[in-house]
Specification:
The protein is built from ten helices and no strands. With 234 residues, it is mainly alpha-helical. The chain is elongated, with a radius of gyration of 23 Å.
């Protein structure tokens, strides 16, 4: 970093650079380190720049976890992620553990993917869904779900098809008297059966960590992990 022009600046220049954070403009990694050097006298403490408040002794007024989450949400670069892991864990090789670090975070991510994907199917592809439901059988519905090229939408079709069979079985076995709208049934099933501390949530957590890249660049793959995990319990 000391080879960078950002290493040398006066206080006026530093203040203008700090204003980039206030304006919501994301500085480069060199800029972040330079700002930390100016404000905190330590370039490696740059994650503290994302703290909402530091006390007079430049100590945290919030947890490191809050700062980690805020930085993750800022779409950090590969270099920033590894530096953040060094600051957070004292081990840059643990950068994957910065993502999906708690079951609460994973549960929220799973629920958001579930709601988003089934919402898109019912809003945009309801006719195609109905065709799929008419053609699915219990023996063929899972065909191709492990293929890498399968889209999240097609996995959602399978998930909803399995839930449709699940509701039919409940009616046939006498567990349910009235048929719900499939979207309503799907949401009810999720809220009743998917929990933040369940083994499934931790299984999905490990798979998400294995799959993730800095900046969530593998969005499709992350959605596939979630949807396949939900399918696995139906």
């Amino acid at each position: 970093m000391q080879d960078s022009a950002w290493y040398y600046f006066d206080n006026l220049g530093a203040e203008s650079r700090v204003s980039k954070l206030a304006l919501g403009n994301k500085p480069t990694f060199d800029e972040l380190q330079a700002l930390a050097l100016w404000q905190l006298n330590n370039a490696e403490e740059w994650p503290k720049l994302f703290a909402q408040e530091l006390d007079a002794n430049k100590k945290f007024a919030e947890t490191k976890s809050d700062i980690r989450r805020r930085i993750i949400q800022s779409n950090p670069s590969d270099e920033e992620i590894q530096s953040l892991a060094q600051w957070y864990f004292h081990d840059s090789n643990k950068w994957r553990d910065l993502y999906f670090s708690t079951s609460d975070e994973v549960y929220t991510f799973i629920k958001n993917i579930f709601n988003s994907e089934i919402g898109k199917v019912f809003d945009q592809k309801s006719k195609l869904l109905q065709q799929k439901l008419e053609n699915y059988t219990k023996s063929n519905i899972r065909n191709g779900i492990k293929h890498k090229r399968i889209t999240p939408t097609n996995l959602t079709f399978v998930l909803l098809g399995l839930l449709n069979f699940h509701q039919n079985d409940e009616i046939n076995l006498g567990y349910r008297k009235n048929r719900l709208d499939l979207q309503q049934y799907a949401v009810s099933w999720f809220n009743t059966n998917i929990h933040k501390d369940a083994p499934l949530t931790y299984q999905i957590m490990n798979q998400l960590r294995y799959t993730v890249e800095p900046g969530y660049r593998k969005q499709k793959e992350l959605k596939q992990v979630v949807l396949r995990g939900l399918i696995s319990v139906l």
